[in-house]
From TrEMBL:
<feature type="transmembrane region" description="Helical">
    <location>
        <begin position="354"/>
        <end position="375"/>
    </location>
</feature>
<protein>
    <submittedName>
        <fullName>PTS transporter subunit EIIC</fullName>
    </submittedName>
</protein>
<feature type="transmembrane region" description="Helical">
    <location>
        <begin position="111"/>
        <end position="134"/>
    </location>
</feature>
<keyword id="KW-1003">Cell membrane</keyword>
<feature type="transmembrane region" description="Helical">
    <location>
        <begin position="322"/>
        <end position="342"/>
    </location>
</feature>
<keyword id="KW-0813">Transport</keyword>
<keyword id="KW-0472">Membrane</keyword>
<feature type="transmembrane region" description="Helical">
    <location>
        <begin position="420"/>
        <end position="442"/>
    </location>
</feature>
<feature type="transmembrane region" description="Helical">
    <location>
        <begin position="263"/>
        <end position="281"/>
    </location>
</feature>
<keyword id="KW-0598">Phosphotransferase system</keyword>
<feature type="transmembrane region" description="Helical">
    <location>
        <begin position="210"/>
        <end position="227"/>
    </location>
</feature>
<feature type="transmembrane region" description="Helical">
    <location>
        <begin position="381"/>
        <end position="408"/>
    </location>
</feature>
<feature type="transmembrane region" description="Helical">
    <location>
        <begin position="140"/>
        <end position="160"/>
    </location>
</feature>
<feature type="transmembrane region" description="Helical">
    <location>
        <begin position="239"/>
        <end position="257"/>
    </location>
</feature>
<dbReference type="Pfam" id="PF02378">
    <property type="entry name" value="PTS_EIIC"/>
</dbReference>
<dbReference type="InterPro" id="IPR003352">
    <property type="entry name" value="PTS_EIIC"/>
</dbReference>
<feature type="transmembrane region" description="Helical">
    <location>
        <begin position="288"/>
        <end position="310"/>
    </location>
</feature>
Length: 448
Protein backbone atom coordinates (compact mmCIF):
# COMPACT_ATOMS: atom_id res chain seq x y z
CA UNK A 1 0.00 0.00 0.00
CA UNK A 2 1.54 3.33 -1.07
CA UNK A 3 0.42 5.96 1.38
CA UNK A 4 3.17 8.57 0.89
CA UNK A 5 1.92 11.59 -1.04
CA UNK A 6 3.96 13.85 -3.33
CA UNK A 7 2.74 17.35 -2.37
CA UNK A 8 4.61 19.31 0.31
CA UNK A 9 2.87 21.55 2.84
CA UNK A 10 4.48 24.73 4.16
CA UNK A 11 4.39 23.51 7.74
CA UNK A 12 6.77 20.59 8.35
CA UNK A 13 4.32 18.86 10.71
CA UNK A 14 1.44 19.23 8.26
CA UNK A 15 3.73 17.78 5.62
CA UNK A 16 4.68 14.94 7.95
CA UNK A 17 1.05 14.00 8.60
CA UNK A 18 0.41 14.14 4.88
CA UNK A 19 3.34 11.82 4.17
CA UNK A 20 2.20 9.13 6.59
CA UNK A 21 -1.19 8.89 4.92
CA UNK A 22 -3.08 11.84 6.40
CA UNK A 23 -5.43 11.83 9.37
CA UNK A 24 -7.26 8.84 7.90
CA UNK A 25 -4.20 6.65 8.57
CA UNK A 26 -3.73 7.89 12.16
CA UNK A 27 -5.77 5.99 14.73
CA UNK A 28 -4.47 7.66 17.90
CA UNK A 29 -1.44 9.35 19.45
CA UNK A 30 0.11 10.11 22.83
CA UNK A 31 3.07 12.01 24.27
CA UNK A 32 5.90 10.30 26.12
CA UNK A 33 8.43 12.82 27.39
CA UNK A 34 10.05 14.39 24.33
CA UNK A 35 8.47 11.86 21.96
CA UNK A 36 5.18 11.79 20.09
CA UNK A 37 3.96 8.24 19.42
CA UNK A 38 1.42 7.73 16.63
CA UNK A 39 -0.61 4.56 16.10
CA UNK A 40 -1.14 3.94 12.37
CA UNK A 41 -3.99 2.07 10.72
CA UNK A 42 -1.55 0.86 8.04
CA UNK A 43 2.18 0.71 8.78
CA UNK A 44 4.60 2.26 6.30
CA UNK A 45 6.39 -0.14 3.97
CA UNK A 46 10.15 -0.02 3.36
CA UNK A 47 9.82 2.22 0.30
CA UNK A 48 7.68 4.77 2.10
CA UNK A 49 9.94 4.73 5.15
CA UNK A 50 13.00 5.42 3.02
CA UNK A 51 11.27 8.27 1.22
CA UNK A 52 10.10 9.81 4.47
CA UNK A 53 13.57 9.64 6.04
CA UNK A 54 15.09 11.38 3.03
CA UNK A 55 12.61 14.27 3.26
CA UNK A 56 13.96 17.59 4.56
CA UNK A 57 12.57 18.97 7.82
CA UNK A 58 11.14 15.68 9.10
CA UNK A 59 11.83 14.99 12.81
CA UNK A 60 13.85 11.91 13.78
CA UNK A 61 11.60 8.84 13.99
CA UNK A 62 11.45 5.07 14.09
CA UNK A 63 8.67 2.63 13.18
CA UNK A 64 7.93 -0.20 15.63
CA UNK A 65 5.17 -2.43 14.24
CA UNK A 66 2.27 -0.06 13.54
CA UNK A 67 3.66 2.73 15.74
CA UNK A 68 5.73 5.70 14.62
CA UNK A 69 7.81 7.29 17.39
CA UNK A 70 8.88 10.86 16.61
CA UNK A 71 11.38 13.11 18.40
CA UNK A 72 10.49 16.64 17.22
CA UNK A 73 13.53 18.83 16.54
CA UNK A 74 12.09 21.73 18.50
CA UNK A 75 12.32 22.17 22.27
CA UNK A 76 9.01 20.36 22.82
CA UNK A 77 6.45 18.43 20.79
CA UNK A 78 3.64 20.88 21.63
CA UNK A 79 3.29 22.25 18.10
CA UNK A 80 3.01 18.74 16.69
CA UNK A 81 0.55 17.64 19.37
CA UNK A 82 -1.60 20.75 18.91
CA UNK A 83 -1.83 20.05 15.19
CA UNK A 84 -2.92 16.45 15.84
CA UNK A 85 -5.59 17.72 18.25
CA UNK A 86 -6.75 20.29 15.69
CA UNK A 87 -7.30 17.45 13.24
CA UNK A 88 -9.54 15.80 15.88
CA UNK A 89 -7.25 12.79 16.18
CA UNK A 90 -8.01 11.07 19.47
CA UNK A 91 -5.44 10.72 22.22
CA UNK A 92 -4.54 7.09 22.84
CA UNK A 93 -5.43 5.77 26.28
CA UNK A 94 -2.14 4.66 27.80
CA UNK A 95 -1.55 1.57 29.90
CA UNK A 96 -0.99 1.95 33.64
CA UNK A 97 2.79 1.46 33.38
CA UNK A 98 3.02 4.04 30.58
CA UNK A 99 0.93 6.47 32.64
CA UNK A 100 3.12 5.95 35.71
CA UNK A 101 6.33 6.53 33.76
CA UNK A 102 4.89 9.60 32.03
CA UNK A 103 3.81 10.94 35.44
CA UNK A 104 7.30 10.54 36.93
CA UNK A 105 8.80 12.13 33.81
CA UNK A 106 6.47 15.13 34.06
CA UNK A 107 7.27 15.65 37.74
CA UNK A 108 11.07 15.50 37.48
CA UNK A 109 11.76 17.06 34.07
CA UNK A 110 11.21 20.66 35.33
CA UNK A 111 13.60 19.97 38.22
CA UNK A 112 16.51 18.62 36.15
CA UNK A 113 18.10 22.07 35.54
CA UNK A 114 18.19 22.58 39.32
CA UNK A 115 19.97 19.26 39.85
CA UNK A 116 22.40 20.05 37.04
CA UNK A 117 23.30 23.48 38.41
CA UNK A 118 23.69 22.10 41.92
CA UNK A 119 25.85 19.19 40.79
CA UNK A 120 28.17 21.30 38.67
CA UNK A 121 28.60 23.80 41.53
CA UNK A 122 29.42 20.94 43.93
CA UNK A 123 31.99 19.61 41.49
CA UNK A 124 33.61 23.02 41.06
CA UNK A 125 33.82 23.48 44.84
CA UNK A 126 35.58 20.11 45.14
CA UNK A 127 37.99 21.22 42.41
CA UNK A 128 38.72 24.50 44.22
CA UNK A 129 39.37 22.67 47.51
CA UNK A 130 41.59 20.07 45.82
CA UNK A 131 43.87 22.77 44.40
CA UNK A 132 43.86 24.70 47.67
CA UNK A 133 42.18 27.76 46.18
CA UNK A 134 39.48 27.83 48.83
CA UNK A 135 39.03 26.59 52.41
CA UNK A 136 36.11 24.53 53.69
CA UNK A 137 35.86 26.87 56.67
CA UNK A 138 35.72 30.07 54.61
CA UNK A 139 32.53 32.07 54.32
CA UNK A 140 32.70 31.83 50.53
CA UNK A 141 32.70 28.04 50.63
CA UNK A 142 29.91 27.84 53.21
CA UNK A 143 27.65 30.16 51.18
CA UNK A 144 28.24 28.36 47.87
CA UNK A 145 28.02 24.90 49.45
CA UNK A 146 24.72 25.82 51.09
CA UNK A 147 23.41 27.09 47.76
CA UNK A 148 24.38 23.80 46.10
CA UNK A 149 22.78 21.71 48.86
CA UNK A 150 19.51 23.68 48.98
CA UNK A 151 17.84 21.75 46.16
CA UNK A 152 18.27 18.49 48.11
CA UNK A 153 17.48 19.90 51.54
CA UNK A 154 14.15 21.27 50.33
CA UNK A 155 13.53 18.69 47.61
CA UNK A 156 10.08 17.64 48.96
CA UNK A 157 8.79 21.20 48.47
CA UNK A 158 10.01 21.30 44.86
CA UNK A 159 8.66 17.81 44.12
CA UNK A 160 5.29 18.70 45.66
CA UNK A 161 5.05 21.88 43.59
CA UNK A 162 5.88 20.04 40.36
CA UNK A 163 3.50 17.16 41.18
CA UNK A 164 0.67 19.61 41.87
CA UNK A 165 1.20 21.29 38.51
CA UNK A 166 0.98 17.90 36.82
CA UNK A 167 -2.23 17.06 38.73
CA UNK A 168 -3.64 20.54 38.01
CA UNK A 169 -4.19 21.55 41.65
CA UNK A 170 -2.88 24.51 43.65
CA UNK A 171 0.94 24.07 43.67
CA UNK A 172 1.47 26.61 46.45
CA UNK A 173 -0.73 24.69 48.89
CA UNK A 174 1.01 21.45 47.89
CA UNK A 175 4.41 23.05 48.54
CA UNK A 176 3.17 24.30 51.91
CA UNK A 177 2.06 20.81 52.91
CA UNK A 178 5.53 19.38 52.24
CA UNK A 179 7.16 22.36 53.93
CA UNK A 180 5.12 21.54 57.05
CA UNK A 181 6.90 18.17 57.25
CA UNK A 182 10.20 20.02 57.68
CA UNK A 183 8.92 22.73 60.05
CA UNK A 184 11.30 23.13 63.04
CA UNK A 185 8.62 22.02 65.50
CA UNK A 186 8.21 18.64 63.81
CA UNK A 187 11.95 18.30 63.23
CA UNK A 188 12.45 19.11 66.92
CA UNK A 189 10.17 16.22 67.88
CA UNK A 190 12.42 13.87 65.92
CA UNK A 191 15.60 15.22 67.48
CA UNK A 192 14.30 15.22 71.04
CA UNK A 193 12.31 11.98 71.16
CA UNK A 194 14.08 8.73 72.01
CA UNK A 195 11.12 6.46 71.19
CA UNK A 196 10.82 7.80 67.60
CA UNK A 197 7.01 7.77 67.92
CA UNK A 198 4.42 10.22 69.20
CA UNK A 199 0.62 10.23 69.08
CA UNK A 200 -1.80 12.41 67.15
CA UNK A 201 -5.35 12.34 68.57
CA UNK A 202 -4.50 8.92 69.93
CA UNK A 203 -3.02 7.57 66.67
CA UNK A 204 0.66 6.53 66.64
CA UNK A 205 2.89 8.61 64.39
CA UNK A 206 6.37 7.42 63.39
CA UNK A 207 8.87 10.28 63.34
CA UNK A 208 10.88 10.53 60.11
CA UNK A 209 13.39 12.87 58.50
CA UNK A 210 11.64 14.22 55.38
CA UNK A 211 14.25 16.56 53.92
CA UNK A 212 15.72 15.22 50.66
CA UNK A 213 12.91 12.65 50.21
CA UNK A 214 10.83 12.22 47.06
CA UNK A 215 8.09 9.60 47.38
CA UNK A 216 6.36 11.05 50.50
CA UNK A 217 5.91 14.39 48.71
CA UNK A 218 4.41 12.70 45.63
CA UNK A 219 2.02 10.59 47.73
CA UNK A 220 1.01 13.55 49.92
CA UNK A 221 0.36 15.79 46.91
CA UNK A 222 -1.64 13.08 45.15
CA UNK A 223 -3.80 12.72 48.28
CA UNK A 224 -4.14 16.50 48.49
CA UNK A 225 -5.32 16.57 44.85
CA UNK A 226 -8.18 14.22 45.75
CA UNK A 227 -9.06 16.33 48.79
CA UNK A 228 -9.03 19.59 46.85
CA UNK A 229 -11.25 18.26 44.07
CA UNK A 230 -13.77 16.90 46.56
CA UNK A 231 -13.87 20.16 48.52
CA UNK A 232 -14.50 22.16 45.36
CA UNK A 233 -17.52 19.97 44.62
CA UNK A 234 -19.02 20.77 48.02
CA UNK A 235 -17.92 24.31 48.88
CA UNK A 236 -18.93 27.39 46.93
CA UNK A 237 -16.27 29.19 44.94
CA UNK A 238 -16.27 32.23 47.24
CA UNK A 239 -15.27 30.08 50.27
CA UNK A 240 -12.75 27.82 48.52
CA UNK A 241 -9.94 30.33 49.04
CA UNK A 242 -10.07 29.71 52.80
CA UNK A 243 -11.55 26.23 53.11
CA UNK A 244 -9.16 24.41 50.74
CA UNK A 245 -5.89 25.35 52.51
CA UNK A 246 -7.50 24.99 55.96
CA UNK A 247 -8.75 21.46 55.32
CA UNK A 248 -5.52 20.52 53.55
CA UNK A 249 -3.36 21.58 56.49
CA UNK A 250 -5.70 19.95 59.01
CA UNK A 251 -6.11 16.62 57.22
CA UNK A 252 -3.30 16.07 54.70
CA UNK A 253 -0.34 16.95 56.95
CA UNK A 254 -1.29 14.57 59.82
CA UNK A 255 -2.33 11.86 57.37
CA UNK A 256 1.03 12.18 55.61
CA UNK A 257 2.95 11.95 58.88
CA UNK A 258 0.96 8.88 59.94
CA UNK A 259 0.64 6.97 56.64
CA UNK A 260 2.18 8.37 53.45
CA UNK A 261 5.44 9.62 54.94
CA UNK A 262 6.66 6.38 56.56
CA UNK A 263 5.34 4.27 53.66
CA UNK A 264 7.06 6.48 51.08
CA UNK A 265 10.38 6.43 52.90
CA UNK A 266 10.29 2.65 53.40
CA UNK A 267 9.37 2.15 49.73
CA UNK A 268 12.16 4.44 48.53
CA UNK A 269 14.68 2.72 50.80
CA UNK A 270 13.55 -0.70 49.54
CA UNK A 271 13.93 0.23 45.85
CA UNK A 272 17.29 1.83 46.51
CA UNK A 273 18.41 -1.21 48.49
CA UNK A 274 17.66 -3.54 45.57
CA UNK A 275 19.45 -1.49 42.89
CA UNK A 276 22.39 -0.45 45.08
CA UNK A 277 22.65 -3.99 46.42
CA UNK A 278 23.14 -5.34 42.91
CA UNK A 279 25.89 -2.81 42.25
CA UNK A 280 27.57 -3.59 45.56
CA UNK A 281 27.33 -7.38 45.09
CA UNK A 282 29.09 -7.39 41.71
CA UNK A 283 29.80 -3.94 40.34
CA UNK A 284 31.35 -5.17 37.11
CA UNK A 285 28.42 -7.35 36.01
CA UNK A 286 25.74 -4.98 37.30
CA UNK A 287 27.50 -2.02 35.70
CA UNK A 288 27.67 -3.80 32.36
CA UNK A 289 23.98 -4.77 32.50
CA UNK A 290 22.67 -1.35 33.55
CA UNK A 291 24.86 0.60 31.12
CA UNK A 292 24.11 -1.68 28.16
CA UNK A 293 20.38 -1.59 28.89
CA UNK A 294 20.14 2.13 29.62
CA UNK A 295 19.36 3.24 26.06
CA UNK A 296 16.75 0.48 25.81
CA UNK A 297 15.21 1.97 28.97
CA UNK A 298 15.26 5.38 27.27
CA UNK A 299 13.47 4.03 24.19
CA UNK A 300 10.59 2.74 26.31
CA UNK A 301 10.70 5.61 28.81
CA UNK A 302 11.64 3.27 31.67
CA UNK A 303 14.72 5.31 32.63
CA UNK A 304 12.53 7.76 34.57
CA UNK A 305 11.80 5.03 37.12
CA UNK A 306 15.46 5.08 38.25
CA UNK A 307 15.70 8.84 38.74
CA UNK A 308 14.02 8.90 42.18
CA UNK A 309 16.52 6.24 43.32
CA UNK A 310 19.42 8.32 42.01
CA UNK A 311 18.10 11.42 43.78
CA UNK A 312 17.58 9.44 46.98
CA UNK A 313 21.15 8.13 46.88
CA UNK A 314 22.62 11.60 46.45
CA UNK A 315 20.40 13.06 49.15
CA UNK A 316 21.15 10.34 51.70
CA UNK A 317 24.87 9.59 51.20
CA UNK A 318 26.01 12.48 49.02
CA UNK A 319 26.70 10.50 45.84
CA UNK A 320 25.23 7.97 43.40
CA UNK A 321 26.78 5.07 41.49
CA UNK A 322 24.00 4.56 38.92
CA UNK A 323 24.32 7.87 37.06
CA UNK A 324 27.92 7.27 35.90
CA UNK A 325 26.63 4.21 34.04
CA UNK A 326 24.20 6.40 32.11
CA UNK A 327 27.15 8.60 31.20
CA UNK A 328 28.96 5.58 29.79
CA UNK A 329 25.91 4.82 27.64
CA UNK A 330 25.77 8.42 26.39
CA UNK A 331 29.42 8.45 25.35
CA UNK A 332 29.14 5.00 23.75
CA UNK A 333 26.21 6.37 21.76
CA UNK A 334 28.39 9.32 20.76
CA UNK A 335 31.12 6.93 19.59
CA UNK A 336 28.75 4.95 17.39
CA UNK A 337 27.19 8.15 16.03
CA UNK A 338 30.63 9.57 15.16
CA UNK A 339 31.51 6.37 13.30
CA UNK A 340 28.31 6.68 11.26
CA UNK A 341 29.05 10.35 10.57
CA UNK A 342 32.53 9.57 9.24
CA UNK A 343 31.51 6.48 7.27
CA UNK A 344 28.14 7.33 5.70
CA UNK A 345 27.83 8.80 2.20
CA UNK A 346 24.26 9.96 2.84
CA UNK A 347 24.25 13.77 3.29
CA UNK A 348 20.97 13.77 5.21
CA UNK A 349 22.30 11.11 7.59
CA UNK A 350 25.50 13.12 8.07
CA UNK A 351 23.42 16.13 9.04
CA UNK A 352 21.34 14.14 11.54
CA UNK A 353 24.47 12.52 13.02
CA UNK A 354 26.14 15.93 13.42
CA UNK A 355 23.16 17.40 15.28
CA UNK A 356 22.93 14.21 17.35
CA UNK A 357 26.57 14.50 18.41
CA UNK A 358 26.11 18.16 19.35
CA UNK A 359 23.07 17.22 21.44
CA UNK A 360 25.00 14.46 23.21
CA UNK A 361 28.21 16.36 23.91
CA UNK A 362 26.68 19.71 24.84
CA UNK A 363 23.36 18.73 26.46
CA UNK A 364 23.70 15.04 27.32
CA UNK A 365 20.53 14.25 25.35
CA UNK A 366 20.67 11.06 23.29
CA UNK A 367 17.25 10.78 21.63
CA UNK A 368 18.28 12.45 18.31
CA UNK A 369 21.16 9.97 17.92
CA UNK A 370 19.04 7.02 19.04
CA UNK A 371 16.05 7.64 16.78
CA UNK A 372 17.81 9.43 13.95
CA UNK A 373 21.01 7.41 13.58
CA UNK A 374 21.77 4.23 15.53
CA UNK A 375 18.41 2.54 16.02
CA UNK A 376 17.22 2.86 12.38
CA UNK A 377 20.57 1.42 11.20
CA UNK A 378 20.39 -1.38 13.83
CA UNK A 379 24.08 -2.41 13.83
CA UNK A 380 25.33 0.89 15.31
CA UNK A 381 22.78 0.52 18.10
CA UNK A 382 24.08 -2.98 18.85
CA UNK A 383 27.61 -1.54 18.83
CA UNK A 384 26.45 1.14 21.28
CA UNK A 385 25.14 -1.50 23.66
CA UNK A 386 28.43 -3.42 23.40
CA UNK A 387 30.45 -0.28 24.12
CA UNK A 388 28.13 0.58 27.00
CA UNK A 389 28.57 -2.89 28.49
CA UNK A 390 32.38 -2.74 28.39
CA UNK A 391 32.54 0.81 29.72
CA UNK A 392 29.85 0.03 32.29
CA UNK A 393 31.87 -2.91 33.57
CA UNK A 394 34.82 -0.57 34.16
CA UNK A 395 32.64 2.05 35.88
CA UNK A 396 30.94 -0.59 38.02
CA UNK A 397 34.20 -2.26 39.01
CA UNK A 398 35.61 1.02 40.36
CA UNK A 399 32.23 2.11 41.83
CA UNK A 400 32.39 5.50 40.10
CA UNK A 401 30.32 8.24 41.72
CA UNK A 402 28.16 11.21 40.75
CA UNK A 403 27.40 14.19 42.98
CA UNK A 404 24.13 15.26 41.34
CA UNK A 405 21.52 14.22 38.82
CA UNK A 406 22.55 15.60 35.43
CA UNK A 407 22.21 14.76 31.76
CA UNK A 408 25.74 13.51 31.15
CA UNK A 409 27.64 15.58 28.59
CA UNK A 410 30.90 17.52 28.50
CA UNK A 411 29.57 20.61 30.38
CA UNK A 412 28.26 18.45 33.26
CA UNK A 413 31.47 16.45 33.87
CA UNK A 414 32.22 18.48 37.05
CA UNK A 415 29.26 16.67 38.64
CA UNK A 416 31.53 13.58 38.73
CA UNK A 417 34.52 15.24 40.44
CA UNK A 418 34.97 12.74 43.25
CA UNK A 419 37.79 10.39 44.22
CA UNK A 420 36.67 8.13 41.34
CA UNK A 421 36.69 10.85 38.65
CA UNK A 422 39.68 9.42 36.77
CA UNK A 423 37.99 6.01 36.59
CA UNK A 424 34.81 7.66 35.31
CA UNK A 425 36.80 9.35 32.52
CA UNK A 426 38.41 6.00 31.69
CA UNK A 427 35.03 4.23 31.60
CA UNK A 428 33.33 6.75 29.28
CA UNK A 429 36.44 6.75 27.05
CA UNK A 430 36.34 2.95 26.86
CA UNK A 431 32.63 3.01 26.03
CA UNK A 432 33.19 5.65 23.34
CA UNK A 433 36.11 3.83 21.70
CA UNK A 434 34.56 0.34 21.79
CA UNK A 435 31.29 1.60 20.27
CA UNK A 436 33.17 3.62 17.63
CA UNK A 437 35.46 0.77 16.60
CA UNK A 438 32.68 -1.83 16.64
CA UNK A 439 30.48 0.35 14.43
CA UNK A 440 33.39 1.00 12.10
CA UNK A 441 34.24 -2.70 11.79
CA UNK A 442 30.76 -4.22 11.43
CA UNK A 443 29.45 -1.33 9.34
CA UNK A 444 25.80 -0.71 8.49
CA UNK A 445 23.41 -0.86 5.57
CA UNK A 446 23.36 2.52 3.80
CA UNK A 447 20.08 1.61 2.11
CA UNK A 448 18.11 1.51 5.37
Amino acid sequence: MNIVNESVSINEYEYLIEQIGGKENIQAFHEDGSRVIIELANKLDAQNLKKLKESDGIPSFIQINSQLEFVPDKDSPKEFVNLLKTLSIKTERKKFLDQAIEFVSSVFTPLLPLFAGSGILKGLLILLITFGWISETSGTYIVLSSAANAVFQFLPILVAFSTARKLKVNPFIAALLSAALMEPGIVGLLNGNTSETISFIGLPMVLMEYSSTVIPAILATSFYALVEKQIKKIVGESFQLIVVPLVALTIVVPFTLIVFGPFGIYLGNFLGYIVNGLLSFNGMISGALIASGWLVFVIFGLHWALYPIIIGNIASVGFDTILPLTGVANFALAGATLAVLLKTKNKNRKSIATSGLMSLFLAGIGEPSIYGVTLPLKKPFIATCIGSAVGGAVAGFFHTKALALVFVGIPTLPAFLTDTFIYFIISISVGFLVAFLTTWMIGFDEEI
